[in-house]
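ARCHIVE RECORD
Type: protein–small molecule complex
Small molecule: S-adenosylmethionine
Source of inputs: curated submission
Record status: active
Notes field left blank by submitter.
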Amino acid sequence: MMALIEFERLLKQAMGLSAATIGEVTLERALQERQQACGLPDLQAYWDRLQSSTAELQELIEALVVPETWFFRHGEAFSALVEVARKGTLRTVPGTPLRLLSLPCATGEEPYSMAMALLDAGFSAGQFHIDAVDISQRALGKARAACYGKHSFRSRDLGFRERYFEATGHGYRLIEPVRRLVQFRQGNLFSPLSFPQAASYELIFCRNLLIYFDRPTQEQAIAVLGQLLAPHGLLFVGHAETSLLTSQGFVPAQLSRAFAFHKAERTEQPPWPAPARTTRAAPAKPLLPPPPRQAAASRPASPPPSRPVPSPGLPRQAETELDAASRLADQGQFAAAARLCLAHLDTHGPSARVFHLLGLVNDASGDAAEAASFYRKALYLDPEHGEALIHLALLLEKQGHMDSAQRLHARARRLKSRTGG
Ligand SMILES: C[S@@+](CC[C@H](N)C(=O)[O-])C[C@H]1O[C@@H](n2cnc3c(N)ncnc32)[C@H](O)[C@@H]1O
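STRUCTURE (tokenized, with ligand):
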């Protein structure tokens, strides 16, 4: 009988995936599905097929990736992108287009959001270049087609949909002038062939990928991203991923709630004079008519002025903030509770407690996908977070994922009997 661990090793090698982050059940289910799709009698035969077929390895990867994304996901990052792009201090060679990378780009919402944010800010098509890379061919196919349903429009503010999309019978299609601003290609973060040029991007978004890796793989991934980043560039990560960066020679950029970092060893001043702060990118030839005036209100809000980063030694204050967020959630003030949690995350970094609370708030507000993702992040940081285990189990039960729910309940029971809690 072929051991699961061999498949886990193979996947880690192929794409960095740590099976623990997706769960053994998910892995087993994907393996069975692929084995059956290939018409093979057992996992040993499927293992042999994987050894000889890169096409089948890609199919297995497709079955395991989580291409969860939406437009202007954590919108502060896009406001921050515009803020730094306007300052003009990131470029390696002045006057050349700003180079941006979305890795992983999944089904395209992230890189297209970059393009729309820059267009809204008055940049013209020739002033920036966006590459978008993902390991999943299937996700890239959807990205290129650029037709999106309601799950891609989860941000509160949907003014961009009015400006840049056409309604189709089934959803919305991004208009062609914006589609052509993003160059999609398949690539693997861990394959040197995917990224032949070092130091080539001034802005890199690598959000919600590192959480699927174990620690050594995360370090390897950050080293690759560091090589791709230009000397004065900025790397944006997801909010569960920030602590990794600071331990790996990156320094938080003072951009509120954007989770952006630059290299610690950069020289203090860029090698060219920064344009005056008032300089604004002026479109040489507008790609699109300017957004209607009222649309300004529906753009992603500018971030509030960045607060000084407090020293990490403030546990009591941090706890008090989360107690206040908890109280607000208990009173049904979910938006206010979420805001406090996000501000807390920004100031004190990720913790299982804040993610669990964000899970509860999203759960109560009816956003099951976001809630599950926060519960998982809580469990990633603290696999023994009893409440997160139970809440995720209940959520999965509601969604009809009985097997996964039962496993989580069993884990919670084992934990309880061990700790006497
Ligand atoms: C959760 S999505 C993140 C999308 C987007 N960055 C966001 O935050 O909304 C994760 C994506 O990572 C991709 N992925 C997984 N392993 C990868 C690897 N080794 N190289 C490139 N992409 C990878 C998956 O195909 C999936 O589309």
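CURATOR ANNOTATION: Confidence is low (pLDDT under 50) at residues 267-314.
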